[in-house]
Amino acid sequence: MTETILLDRPAERVARITLDRPRVLNALNLRTMQEITAATSELDGDPDVGAIILTGSAKAFAAGADIKEMAPQSFGDVHAADWLGGWEALSRVRTPLVAAVAGYALGGGCELAMMCDLLLAADTAKFGQPEITLGVLPGMGGSQRLTRAIGKAKAMDLILTGRTMDAEEAERAGLVSRIVPADALSEETVSTASKIASMSKPAVMLAKEAVHRAFETSLSEGLLFERRLFHSTFATHDQKEGMTAFIEKRPPEFRHR
Ligand code: CAA
Predict the structure, then answer these.
(1) Residues 225 and 212 sit within 8 Å (Cβ to Cβ)
(2) Deepest in the core among 77, 95, 110, 245, taking most CB within 10 A?
(3) What value does the mean pLDDT take over residues 30-54?
(4) What is the ipTM of this complex?
(5) Alpha helix locations (H) across the chain?
(6) Are the beta carbons of 105 and 61 closer than 8 angstroms?
(7) Ligand 1 pocket residue status of 56, Cβ below 6 Å
(8) The pTM is what?
(9) What are φ and ψ of residue 120, in 5° steps?
């Protein structure tokens, strides 16, 4: 039974996780971390799930890590517990994660959205890393993923001043995949996730792995890795089906194997 998130299946092969701590603008506490990582890991192992949506409310995707939970902790506490380290489990999820962000995505909320593979933003979305205003710095990947996503100049601006950026600035900077009118966010996200989930699952998983590898390796190693993954798809039913369907001018019937 989950306390801080809701789970549903809004479309065929699509699962959705909705943050549900409205009174604290979906602040992320330890329990939320455990529930999200457990849910994503279980959904990742489900062959009937081809994409996972992560979303919040109209007012807040998430306003950051839970400040009231963190405030009394000592260095010894957070260091011994490797505080926030559990979020790394999201990096091991091989099914695409689609973030649907409306309202505040601040601190850990922005960092959680950046752990996803696609980021759809409502025109109401506000992104920022305000940790500096609390006397700390980002701890769930902000200094690393934000810098890779939008470059040093803007990452420094956001992280050192704590200012927020709106959806348009975030899209221009390369943080956001698409901006959608707020009242269309849910529908657009479900249809995007459905589209991904309708593709061959092994091809989708390999493509996700290939893009992530771009951040971890040299260009020549990355190109070789991509080419070998491309070769490996020729061992799947779905490669034969996808190419045959194209030649026969009909939609493919992927088996996701
Ligand atoms: N943690 C705990 N509670 C939070 C919270 C957070 N990150 N953000 C908001 N809340 C709570 C507020 O304390 C308030 O609760 P009470 O009614 O009990 O006082 C409730 O949510 C509503 O918030 P506000 O009254 O502040 O709402 P607002 O509309 O006036 O302001 C806001 C909205 C600008 C987002 C403001 O709430 C805010 O600045 N929140 C904190 C943002 C922040 O600093 N995030 C970074 C956290 S640290 C972090 O994330 C570390 C990391 O890297 C992982």
Answers:
(1) no
(2) 110
(3) 98
(4) 0.98
(5) 30-44, 67-70, 75-80, 108-114, 147-150, 152-161, 167-173, 185-198, 201-213, 219-232, 237-247
(6) yes
(7) no
(8) 0.98
(9) -95, 130
